[in-house]
Design a protein that fits this description.
Two copies of one chain form a homodimer. The first copy, chain A, is 72% helix and 0% strand. The first copy, chain A, is mainly α. At the A-B interface, helix 1, helix 6, helix 7, helix 8 and helix 9 of A face helix 1, helix 6, helix 7, helix 8 and helix 9 of B. The first copy, chain A, binds a DNA duplex through helix 3.
Chain lengths: 193, 193
DNA sequence: GTTATTGTACCGATCGTTCGGTATAATCTT
DNA sequence: AAGATTATACCGAACGATCGGTACAATAAC
């Protein structure tokens, strides 16, 4: 089992069950390793697993999902690509966000710090593209936070109501939010829900 | 201890620790009751506690928070009152939402159903006021979902980054979202963050 | 004195964690 | 090159603690 696979499995358990809800048995089954083997790889136990998973989220996943932002091409096209990237990452809204599920309860200070760092990286990435459209620093930050909040909230709504359309809408409205375009009378044809 | 106090304590534990994170010991300590007393009141155990807490959220808390919506007065004033009501409920963004924290992991089918019902009641309440401003049914639903998603996402962001300003902004933008007013160039004076 | 309610003592199961040990591969010694 | 040693990855079995839940006697309320 490669490191990437191992982390993928761990991440999946944590993000669907949360920190407390993810038992070592669950993690062992998901990874195909015995609990003692997990302790060999993570001497710090479950807290270390959560912390390293959260770190990878900030350092690898966020960078990967936001990569299209800093490529070439018109800004709308780049944002469209990021939207598709996020839709894939969250499986259309069917999967929860690690930032949400693992920040509940006692996940240990290292994990909490890593989660906060991941969130801030995401905010900074969005803010950077918002600043491209002429927004000043503070306004860019606000737009970035609002865009992420819209996505995170839609994921919560999807988990509770089993309706992923608000998530699809949040992704669709992402360019408007970041670029400061009026979305009052946007087109919702065939996107009701 | 009155029923209201009892439920308040239980709700507090569930919404800050989630279902799995809320142990019977925690619940017993928070309520000042022994486990046997809790089982006398909730023969169905922790699952029943969670379900009844979620039911009260939908039937009492949502109704209470949204009450100003259906009183007299101009619609902006009513929405302002709801915003203050929600700010109090979430303590300015410092407290998580039960819809979020208790929907993670295995909270039992009754609780899940009650949480979904609570979310839908909230959506319907917001949609009703959105419809007042001339939006058709589908558009009102969308605005209501988006408004709630903005709030829930801001609460997630607040929990992770310890920054409650996105929450304050979500509340502030609530009237604009529901009434379909352009909020592109809204005033953010003294509300940066 | 009857009925609720609580306190105490438990239960089996599972929690996160640790320990002793195995197999293979790399590293060192000579 | 051969043998001894170390490092790495994994496993099975158990640890004490806590989990959610139960049985029942003592107490409180009426």
């Amino acid at each position: 089992m490669t490191d990437a696979q191992l982390f993928d499995r761990l991440t999946d358990v944590f993000r669907s069950a949360g920190f407390e809800g993810a038992s070592l048995s669950d993690l062992a089954i998901a990874t195909g390793l015995q609990k003692s083997s997990l302790y060999h790889r993570f001497p710090g136990g479950k807290a270390q697993m959560a912390a390293e998973v959260a770190e990878r989220l900030g350092k690898r996943d966020v960078e990967q999902a936001l990569a299209p932002l800093f490529a070439d091409g018109p800004i709308e096209a780049r944002l469209g690509r990021v939207g598709r990237s996020l839709t894939a990452f969250y499986e259309g809204g069917a999967k929860s966000c690690l930032l949400d599920t693992m920040s509940i309860g006692a996940a240990g200070p290292d994990a909490q710090r890593a989660l906060a760092a991941a969130a801030n990286r995401w905010i900074q990435g969005f803010a950077r593209v918002a600043a491209e459209s002429g927004a000043d620093e503070a306004e860019a930050q606000r737009r970035a936070q609002d865009a992420i909040a819209a996505i995170e909230g839609a994921l919560v709504l999807a988990r509770v109501t089993k309706n992923t359309r608000p998530f699809a809408r949040a992704i669709q409205q992402l360019p408007a939010v970041l670029l400061g375009i009026d979305r009052t009378h946007a087109d919702h044809t065939n996107k009701r829900g």
